[in-house]
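Submission sheet (multi-component)
Chains listed below:
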Amino acid sequence: MTTSDTAVLPGDPHVGVPDKQGTASDAERLDRAMHSFLRDFGANNAVYLESCVHCGQCAEACQYYVQTGDPKYTPIWKIEPFKQAYKREMGPLSPIYRLLGLKKRVTAAELAEWQELIYDSCTMCGRCTLVCPMGIDIASLVGSVRHGMEAAGLVPHDLKVTMDRAKTEGSPLGATPKVLKERLAWMADEHQVEIPLDLDKADILVTISSIEIMKYPQSIAALAKVMRHVKASWTFRSDGYEATNFGMLGGDRVGQRQATMKLIEAAIKVGAKVVILPECGHAYQALRWQGANVYGKPLPFKVLNISEYLAEKIAEGKLHLKTDTRSVTFHDPCQVARRGGAIAAPREVLHALGVDLREMKDTGAFNWCCGGGGGVVTIKRADPLRYRVFQIKMRQVDDTGAELLVSTCSNCRQTFDDGQAHFHWDKAAHSLLELVADNLAERS
Amino acid sequence: MGGGTLLDFARGPGMEWALAILVFGIVWRLVGIFTLKRPKDLAEPRAGASAIGAMWVIISRTWPHKEFRERVLHWEVVSYLFHGGYAVAILGYAPHILLIRALIGISWPGLPGGVIAFAAGISGVALIALLMHRLNSPVLRKISNFDDYFSWLVAFMPLPTGLMAYYHLGGNYEWMLGFHMLTGEILLAWLPFGKIMHTILFAFSRGTTGLAYSRKGAPL
Amino acid sequence: MSNETISESFRKAGMSRRAFLKFCAAAASVLALSPAEAGEMTRRLAQARRPDVIYLSYQECTGCLESLTRSFSPGIGHLLFNDISLDFDDTLQAAAGEAAEAARMTAMKKAWGKYILVVDGSVSPKDGGVYCTAAGKSSVADLQYAASGAQAVVAVGTCASFGGLPFAAPNPTGAVPISEIVKDKPVINVSGCPPIAEVITGALLYYVSFGVPALDRHGRPVNFYGNTIHDRCYRRPFYDQGLFAHTFDDEGARRGWCLFELGCKGPVTHNACATTKWNGGTSYPIESGHGCLGCSEPNFWDRGGFYRPLSTPTGHWSGAQVLGGAAVAGAAVGVAVAGVARARQNKKDDHKPDHKPADKDHDRNG
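Outcome: structure written.
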């Protein structure tokens, strides 16, 4: 991710042809996409697709439009083929549209053209959903469209490679069970903390993301320290540890299901009452909010984001913290806060830490996306665009005057790290979990 | 001489058909949406999630959150001038109220004609401004289609024709009155088939998101 | 039948020139003529011969003639004896029967091409004209003959002007207005049910003085029919303020508020009621508390009902039935379309990958 600023932006006519997977013909791709779209044309999506009044406000909330002024980044425009297909094939007025030829069929070329709008320039952050006067959940519509794109083999290569790796190796970054074991042993040793793996029974199943395993392994140690401090009954499982869900991000229904079921089955096996999701945004979306629907019945355990678990323990009086009086500003990961609802928990933790919390002007559910979610950070050709939108974050943080930037998502963290390097910025993103672990007030 | 005038048509079959098409179209479109498959959400809602919180979004989304206001509020205000003036002109004018009473049996006191004319004037000017915006804004130019422009015209026509009828401008009053009624009937007949259906859909689209997000604990 | 001028006839009746001038001034004001026109009318009337007038009645209720006899200015007496020579009117005259008809024919022949034909009531051409006959002759034939010798035709009343009551649905006699039959002579429609007396006499007087007046698109003199009742209604301020009577005896009614809600058709009715009023300026329907019926307009009987406000539908449909039917139809179409759409979803949904780990559809990875 060291592409220079001068590289052309996606969608520029000089950029190469959209990525295609496989050797299927255009007609076949289109057919598969339509097949997938049809499945996603349920009543909820239908209400949204019928309700757009073309007011254009969604563009004003979208970091991509705000930073570039390019109208093609208008969020509802990103799903235009999906909307057209719905109106032509599924909507109540569809017989009229077809009979009178009022809506054209979506073409394979259009789908390919839309690839960069659906993937490179959308993190499904959901700000558009918040501004839409009709309350349309545009972000979730993008998620639906990705199913069709994936079925058609029209995913950006970089993302597809990551998705495939997740399916075949169990981790998007090659953090296989073997690698996991090694890293856990290493962290346990280096930080002198027990990290249980593959216990038969435990109250809590803890999951982790490959980003932490490969890039920020110290946060695993931080987690173990916290669990030791609160005297939890917990374990990692090598048959169900990967919290990320690139299937969900890329639109691969099978991959999504596979990753989710691993966690669910592992949790059931150990009889877990609680499953903890790590500092990862979309992991929360995948299990907490979509897990039961993938499973087909309510989950037999509680699902908590790590920040929620920490807040819970603080409230129960089980987690004791030293005071850190530094000034801190908090970046809300989109999928945890705005789209996940866990907005208060991280702040309760920061409050318990006694930091001087300086909220960004647009904060909580209204915070801006780091630009790396939704799989975007894996798409190299999207880097120039990502750096453009990252400038919003830098401005936000600098405006608070805080000395420390904290968040609770490793993907945001790596996006911040990359942006920091690119812009030679003086702020690094810190993990809330690590901050807590560094400030545990041990008693006897 | 003795034949139907435009006014007679507008008060007679024109009204009848327009109302029938309005109801037919609305029910068709709503039923056609809500009899599609509805995925059930099996995720456990965040403690405290409620239907009231869900319904709140239907109301709260009427005004933009402060974080977005700098970029959207000015045109939203113009839009409300259009909608508000339109509502006052329709619901506050005694002849219109009598039409509603003839159809559904309820009525309320009306406002002076001058107030109505003023409201209609503001509404019309705002609507023209919105059209200019749609034609000039790169975002709106990109996403706008036939429906946007046709619906604009259909919504606009009752305003100048109503004002002209009210002030007896434009020649034969009876014809202008009949024409004004006809433009209203075209509006009613078109309503279910284009974007003007948002008058009804807004509650459902906002409500769907409100329900989904209140379950998540973020009903904004 | 007369060779004397109108002013001579006035003098003969013992009225001074001053009385004649007052008469002309009053007539001119009813016609809303300008001072110059009023002066001109006086001059012309003074020199004009008393024109012969034939008054024929067909499918009518005699209300128009009754109204005419209530004219104050010019009074019917004046009209009959001073301004015109009414050679035939089967209601007013004493004579009847074949002798009267013969007298009519004589009068018409004597003034052939010069008499003014005044007609009230519609005529009925249907089925050979059997539905309205006098002395074995159909109204249509009679009218055609009478019109052929007239210099102009004045159609008094809405029946003559537009068909009126006989024309109202279902119009069993096939009634038509006078202007449907008379195509080759000027026809002045003085509509109203009945017309105001002064409007009838004023229109006649105008014709005698100046000829055919400026007519609106329905052939009515613009002097009297140029404005709507609404334009000149004294209750207009209440309309503008939005103050309406809701019933005939509520507070609004007692306070004299606008009668729009009670079905007043003033806004679309052209007549002189609001200014000239009735019975020598005594009152007019709205002033007496009843909404305007629109009686000087074509088809006023069939425009949805006198008590239905102008803005409400006129259809005789039951709103509930039509809208209920529309809703049911809409629901049926909606369900059908969604049903077909869902079937297309299901048809392609052979396996449900959400419940099966291996999805053959997604076996392809590039």
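Remark: The first strand of chain A starts at residue 204 and ends at 206.
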